[in-house]
Amino acid sequence: MRILELTNYTAGVCGVGARVKQEAVLLAQKGHEVRIFSSCFTKGSSDTAPQEDVIGGVRIMRFPARKLGGESYLSWNFEREAQAFKPDVIIAHAYRHPHTTRALTLGEKIGVPVILVTHAPFLSDNSTRSLLAKWSVQFYDRFIGPTTLNRFFKIVIIAPWEKAYLEKMGVRKDKIVYIPNGIMPAFFALPQGLEEHKVLYFGRISQIKNLEVLIEAFALIKDKKAVLEIAGPAEADYLARLRKIVRDKQLTTRVIFTGAIYDMVQKIHKIDSGKVYVLPSLREGMPQTLIEAMARGRLVLGSDNEGNRGIINHGINGFLFKFDNAAELAALLDSALAKPYQAIRKQAQEDVKKFAWETLIEDICDLIAQAVRLSKK
């Protein structure tokens, strides 16, 4: 079967792009011919990615694009190449983006079912968006979303809390399918690496991740022997601001900034090196690095947003804190560094087994088979 996946980014660190690439490689291993189309941009930088790439037998094609607003709202033309590929099904990722509605129009034109994967863009609190972005989201959800969403064959949500938002916009219940992001087998299979007396953040170093609160909390902890490592690709202006906070707090010998790590084994070793993993984000959809850290048995602390709250059961498999409360986070860090919390760490590993890609890819294969079968009737 020919499967076309569409997403804005396939280069750089992008949660949506990571889901797409993992899903595509596993579908290819099932015997499908899979291609990924994306923009030519690299997430988190001004670099342009190679026009073509191959991962795990999956061909990636990247197209010239222009930014319509923000980092991820892009326009890029893929229809001619999509028709030449002759897909049996199209999977379009990220609700509200132009390529998803264009995929729907293309699918209807060539008689191919289109599946939308939302990637949890819904917010009860829009405080992190600009006024223009807030207006654009409200306009889209009021006038465009309700007229297009029910035209997709199915709408895949990656977090259960998305369902209420979609139903409020008039999406039929039978259209909605829950298939979360997955964890690759290596995160469960590789032996544990050396654990250091360290607090770790691993992911994009961007304003939405709220890392200044983590640094401020680290400055307050009683344990002065611990190290904080912040690892990942960084937005230059934001990184400069964080470095200034570190200097002002006189933490330059105890706070380490590390660049991006793309190799999976190296990523796992980095996660293993931290005793505590912290995700202090202002908002999350379905936090990939959080579930990966839990799979490695780290003690996880997450800010109390919808995405983290859907994964962390406070006091059972990790701990939640108010995103703007450095003192609360500092108290949790001191406790986490001082105690083993083995039962909570083991429960975390157990709880995220449901996100293993070996199980989830079967659900996706079943959905694709259903879409293709019904489209041919």
In words, what does this structure look like?
With 377 residues, this protein is of the alpha/beta class. It has two domains: 2-182 and 356-375, Rossmann fold; 186-354, Rossmann fold (3-Layer(aba) Sandwich), CATH 3.40.50. The chain has helices spanning 15-29, 79-85, 98-110, 131-148, 162-168, 186-189, 211-220, 236-248, 264-273, 288-295, 306-309, 326-338, 342-351, 357-375, and strands at residues 2-6, 33-39, 52-55, 58-63, 65-69, 73-76, 89-93, 114-117, 154-157, 176-178, 198-202, 227-231, 255-258, 276-279, 299-303, 319-321. Strand 3 and strand 4 form a beta hairpin. The longest helix has 19 residues, at 357-375. The radius of gyration is 21 Å and the shape is globular.
Which characteristics define this entry?
6-stranded parallel sheet; 16 strands; 377 residues; 2 domains; single chain; Rossmann fold; 40% helix; alpha/beta
Characterize this entry briefly:
This protein has 377 residues and is an alpha/beta fold. Helix content is 40%, strand content 19%.
Which stretches are poorly predicted, pLDDT < 50 over at least 5 residues?
none
- DSSP E strands, number: 16
Supply the CATH superfamily name of the largest domain: Glycogen Phosphorylase B
Order of helices and strands: EHEEEEEHEHEHEHEHEHEHEHEHEHEHHH
The helix/strand class is alpha/beta
- Looking across the biggest beta sheet, what order are the strands in? 3-4-2-1-7-8-9-10
Helix percentage range? 40-55%
Q: What's the number of helices?
A: 14
- Can you identify the CATH class of the largest domain? Alpha Beta
Assembly category: single chain
- Report strand %: 15-25%
Taken together, the total number of domains comes to 2
Query: Sheet bearing the most strands, described?
Result: 8 strands, mixed
Instruction: Quickly give the CATH architecture of the largest domain.
Output: 3-Layer(aba) Sandwich
What is the terminal separation in angstroms?
A: 17 Å
Mean pLDDT: 94
Shape: globular
Rg on CA atoms, Å: 21 Å
CATH T-level topology of the largest domain = Rossmann fold
